[in-house]
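Can't paste images in this forum, so I'm doing it all in text. The chain is below; anyone willing to post the predicted structure tokens underneath?
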Amino acid sequence: MTDLSLNGLATRPAQVWGGVRLVPLVRDEPIEDLRLASRLYDADIGVVAVDRRTVYWSYIPHGFVATWTGDGTPAAAYGTQLRDTADDRAPDRMPLRFHRRMARRADKNRLRFLPLHLALEGYLALHFGGPEIAWSEWSERALRQGLSPRAEEAYTGAAVRGLADALRVFEIHPGQCGVLVYLSDALASAFVVPHPDDYRALHSTLVHDLYGELIHHYAMYGRPVPEFRARIEDTAVRSLADLRAAARARQDEWAAFHDDVMAGGLLGGDYTYEHVYEMGPYRLSRLMPSFERQQDNHLGELIDDDTGRLAYLKTFRLSENQVRRGHLLTRLAANDWRLSTTAAALGATETELVRRIEAAGFGYLLRQDVRDHYRARLRRGP
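Text version of the structure:
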């Protein structure tokens, strides 16, 4: 387990629109030998072949194309428009797009991957195979099919109140290569790219991303957030140099407060890194959180180099219910899916554990007679 660092990026003052707070991230030196571009698809619903027996269905409006050079020379951004914008007729049936895999090499130094879905597929595939030992409590379906099918709900950015307007009026900073999106001051997502030109091209794609249930509710029911205005005491300013120094100090204070407090749940979390693809000096990885209860838990994917410099990042905040499901599956797998051992590790009874399994939507994994038995015990009480 390890943490996450915004290495190579600096935090700048936030901008507020209603309940949306956008915090820019800038680079002193852009990354020139890795570039990102968007590839639009002709169907919003995508079907991805994960392996020969497993497919992933989701809203996938676009993919990212990463282009890099192996010798450190500048790379050119690549992009393709596949949507027929001239034809506005409604389709006769739901259009689908089939993808061979989450990340697929498109050329010698070019990789096409599905942003955010690399992380979400990892969460949906969490202990997907189900019980590895045929304990008597588990159903035949659980032993044969595991957790198939496995589904979670999310909302598009267009359904998150205020986000589209905030992105439209957002002032892009010089050198900006990323942004952290807050709804009612709850961190919704982080987005980082290698180059300022990439960010300008991909800034609007945030409204097409997926956001969790918690974020949607915060945006819908939350109130406008206050602006954090910097104040400089004029008694301490005697020259233009003093004013610059004071302004820089306020900027550094804000950055320290933001990174330690507001983004602390993201940057201070424990993550498991799964390397997915080597891209010359860079590597594409999936981030999985610890699924600790009552804490912020973010899924993510990133591209970094051997020095730890962050080139690309995209995250998704899990709701408490999603964290609960991930926590339960992780503890079951850690205890070989044995109910008695897992219950003891959780400090609960077997009856309470069965109730949690059913409440999480995994009741179908248990045999019906086992469920009926524990339900009867729960009704009788201790």
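Confidence is low (pLDDT under 50) at residues 80-88. The two ends are 39 Å apart (CA to CA).
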